[in-house]
Amino acid sequence: MPPRFMRTIRAAALAGMAVLASAGAGAQSAVLYGVVDVSATRVKPVGTDGRLLKLDSGEFQRSFIGFRGSEDLGGGLRGVFRLESYLRADVGGSGRDPVDAFWSREASAGLSGSFGTTVLGRTPTPLWLATTAFNAFGESVGFSPTVRQYFGGAMLGDTAWNNSIWYTNNARDPLRVVFSANVDETTATRSNGHNLGLSVAYITGPFAATLVAERIRNSAQPLPAGFERQTVWNLGAAYDFQFIRVYGQAGRIETESNADSTITSYQLGAAVPFGTSVILVAYGYQHFSSATKGTTNNIASVAYEYFFSKSTDIYIAATYEKLSFVSSGNSVAGGVRVKF
What are the residue ranges of helices labelled H in the chain? Predict the structure, then answer.
């Protein structure tokens, strides 16, 4: 195992032990939690003729480990922190890929009280939170049409922003607000500007709806030539009929660069619970247009989950994808997910 990776693991272990050790001190509390999701997958990528059998981690839900905690500061005020690292359980690695930062899912600290919660650090974007909440497949990178179409290349800002301030009001309020802003620390003279994101959600009884707006000016990801900004709008809604939960989203992404482009997206999905099982279905449509080309992407997914408990389930999932001008792709996976 590479020495750099061993040093990262040791540092994370020491941080985790320090967090757990502090749980019994004064009015502090800390929790270890996470998800391990592993599946066997047969996949035919879009635009290829070959098929591949592989063992995957995080196709149904990204595997991760996290530590969160708080300290009672009196008067209803609490100090809070959260550290979350993605995992690749199939190879025993950290991150979503070999170059991903260790705490890339979230790394933040701040204050919480009657005003809500405000934290600083690397924090999830309003669009990522809304996209995964108003979606039958949640944050599945393998089977959620919305996640695949938004965060598989269309979005330039990743699922979380570095160097950010993040705010949300109290979760018990029917009208929930999430605001995020970051700064570009590239250089003092070459900064592209700040990222800004805002989501407003109305949640009452079985109905929920959200509107998200983001402006992206900087990113840790590669940017197109002449990049100026990316503007994103997304509308989501869900309704729980008890025997079925339905989801819908519609969005638009406008990118200003040397080659301006516009992307429109639509998604419909449903979850049908029965006994200790649930059937998930979703369909996503996305159209990309620029001055030189236009392409359409269609993704349809279906899955069956069986829950042994609140923490452990097994699943079978399949997806079909069609992209303009190339051969279609598909994948089938069967796996197990354990939450802790």
Answer: 3-22, 126-133, 145-149
